[in-house]
Amino acid sequence: MVRQPGRSDTRPSRSGTPRAPLAQREPSGPGRIRSGRLWSALSGRSVAGQVFVLQVAIVLLLIVSAVLALVLQVRHDSTTEARNRSLAVAQTFADAPGTAAALRLPDPTKVLQPRAEAARKATGVDFIVVMNTDGIRFTHPKPDRIGKKFVGTIGPALAGGTVTEEVHGTIGELVQAVVPVRDANGKVVGLVSAGITTAHVGGRADQQLPLLLTAAAAALALATAGTALVSRRLLRQTHGLGPDEMTRMYEHHDAVLHSVREGVLIVGGDGRLMLANDEAQRLLDLPQDAERRLVLDLGLDAETAALIASGRVATDEVHLVKDRLLAVNQRPIEVRGGPPGSVTTLRDSTELRALSGRAEVARERLNMLYDAGVGIGTSLDVTRTAEELTELAVPRFADYATLDLYDAVLKGEEPKPGDALRRVAFAGIRKDAPLYPVGERFQFVPSSPQGRSLESGESVVEPRLRDSPGWRSQDVELTGRILEFGIHSLITVPLRAGNLVLGLANFCRSEKLAPFDTEELALAEELVARAAVSIDNARRYTREHSMAVTLQRSLLPRNLPAQSALDIAYRYLPAQSGVGGDWFDVLPLSGARVALVVGDVVGHGLHAAATMGRLRTAVHNFTALDLQPDELMGLLDELVGRIDQDETPVDDADNTVTITGATCLYAIYDPVSRRCTVARAGHPPPALVGPDGSVEFPDVPAGPPLGVGGLPFETADLELPEGSSLVLYTDGLVEDRQRDIDEGLELLAGALESAAGSSPDDTCAAVLERLPARPGDDVALIVARTRALGADRIAEWQVPADPAAVSEVRSRVTRQLADWGLDELSFTTELILSELVTNAIRHGRPPIGVRLLRDRSLICEVSDASTTSPHLRYAASTDEGGRGLFLVAQMSERWGTRYTPAGKVIWAEQPLP
């Protein structure tokens, strides 16, 4: 507890009886007091004792440091002096007259030893050694060492330099110098070394140390006396309390006064404020210098100030202080033996209202999170998911909300840092906010809150946009208009999906005056986190859907082949829910015929698209064999059955079988006979539009879907007048969840009737106008208007089974080609027909027929009643025949064989000149 000035230390004891003040419990008598307090100070248990010990220790440390510094300085000076003296003596002796000459004598020691000793004694060094260049001594203070090897470094001296080093010799620590002796020519003829122990050049420390110790003792005595006086005064102030007791006392003081949720005021008897804790300063909005001022001068309302200054007893009196309702309790403190004054406690009753308001806010936030869980991500559409987030946030959380995504996210790809963002969604209480519009692309500068958020991946709160220079640097003019509009606070949150940042969500306030705080930031992050998961799922779906669409479109025909039998237009629409397996094809056949095929693989996605590609490739291969529609359907049925078997899991525990399933319709149109042969496998029937605009659905036998197996397929022969239209389609055109197939066929018939007389392309457009913008299933549509090959472009005749008839055939061919203006092809055509007719006569059976067709190319056909198929081979040099088909293959652009109910036809095509 804190003792106020003038207050006694009367405290109740544990037994309940009042304790005497500390001053009364101390022993009487000045000597007793001085000795007790001094001992307490010196003991080190109290704060005063610790201060005393610390100061004495500091003085001792300074004294020891000074002595150590002196010793080190003296040692350094001694070493420096020894170096200088030894080097000077050695250099002087080496340069002395006669030293170099003495080294050339037979006995240099006899001359140099007396000189060296005289010089040693005169200079005070410990030794002067003269040696030759090999380091053999000529002089030494101890004669027994003359002639022995010098101990030390002589290399630099031999090179003309000097050596000064510290060594440990037999006489102790010493410094020696080695210098060269040069002759008149400057050649090194010997060496001189002089050395001296550092002890001989020292001695100043011994002279200064007694003076230093005397000064240190005096300083220690003065410091001890001063510290004792300070400790005695500190002892009176702390009442002998130790550090732990004082720390605990002040911790309790802080806990009571500054941690409680009640305001505490202590007012003196003169009406001055002695103490106010943090809560009291907050509740009363006191000035910083409130303490020691009169309560009546603190700016409080008159009633509250009068109550606090009066010191009277008050219990839960409610006073309105500014916008707060305060419950005031007040008690005097002098009744317990303290100084005059009172203690006032303040409790804010408005906090109860604030708590209830916060509970309501928390409940609203929970409702928002619940609504976000069920309302965000209802579709696998990136844009719609973004709109759901902004619509949820406005106006419940923010006045304006925007969502910006990288363009790559909209395409289903992973975003790359540094790319531009595109505004995808916007919601606000007003539509005229000066923010980037939906669809605009932009980049945020690094200093803006959005730029910092994208860089760090963390959310950023700007409570006051007016004070954010980084935000204003984005666009000075635009941000100025935003501030004028009233938008004042911003939260920007990155949309994170794992390690990917997909974009940014921005929440702004204008009508709500309170800025965003950290609790609202947590709510915004939770909302955005839920939206980010849905957006990432939509992005992945978009990517997979795009891949499937790309795969499917790559498998569909890009251009229609050149042919003259049909005028064709087509349309293909992918499904809204996913890529399906609808496909179609237009395949030219021999004899100017054209095959139309349309099919639908069960299911959606990559599997359906891949299966469709396999079926389309198979149809291409089977068409090359010139098979009838029912035969081709049988082969496709076997192929789909094998696909089902191959894709059935081997380790399927519940024995489930993956059924591919497909439907198909195959039609062959012959412009010569104007007949169309159609077969279908579980597919909707074709529509036939007559030249007069009438629409009918011919009765084509409906075979089972491909892959079922076990049942044959049947064909229907249709005679199509020239100018009629054959319409092939998939079930997505006539059937969906809102209508059955009969209703769809009626709608299709109505659309075809309304488009009667239009071109095939206009007919396709008219049919698709009646479909929704994005159908639930794939739609493939082909409109083929028939053409007929005129009689003036056909020549045919029967040939007797007589080799002599071949010449007649050549003559007729020559005349016919001349009538058509194709004389250039006479020779090759005669050769081709000669070989084909000859083979038919020799190996076939009558009747034998020849037909010439002038279409986009010249087509030669030879038919007979045999089903034996010829084959191309290389004839040996000794063979008399076997070269006919080889010549036919060389002369024609294409050739082949097709079978008919009456036999076979061998055909060959030549390009027109």
UniProtKB/TrEMBL annotation:
Highest taxon of source: Bacteria
Limits of the GAF domain: 381-545
InterPro entries attached to this UniProt entry: Bact_Sigma-Reg (IPR052016), GAF (IPR003018), GAF-like_dom_sf (IPR029016), HATPase_C_sf (IPR036890), HATPase_dom (IPR003594), PAS-like_dom_sf (IPR035965), PPM-type-like_dom_sf (IPR036457), PPM-type_phosphatase-like_dom (IPR001932)
Keyword Cell membrane applies: yes
Gene3D superfamilies recorded: 3.30.450.40, Histidine kinase-like ATPase, C-terminal domain, PAS domain, PPM-type phosphatase domain
Subcellular location: Cell membrane
Compositionally biased spans, kind Basic and acidic residues: 1-12
Chief location of this protein within or outside the cell: membrane
Bilayer topology term: Multi-pass membrane protein
Positions of the UniProt region annotated as Disordered: 1-32, 447-466
Every PPM-type phosphatase domain range: 563-786
Listed transmembrane segments: 52-74, 209-230
Residue runs in coiled coils: none
Keywords from the UniProt entry: ATP-binding, Cell membrane, Hydrolase, Kinase, Membrane, Nucleotide-binding, Phosphoprotein, Transferase, Transmembrane, Transmembrane helix, Two-component regulatory system
Protein name (record): SpoIIE family protein phosphatase
Organism, as annotated: Streptomyces hyaluromycini
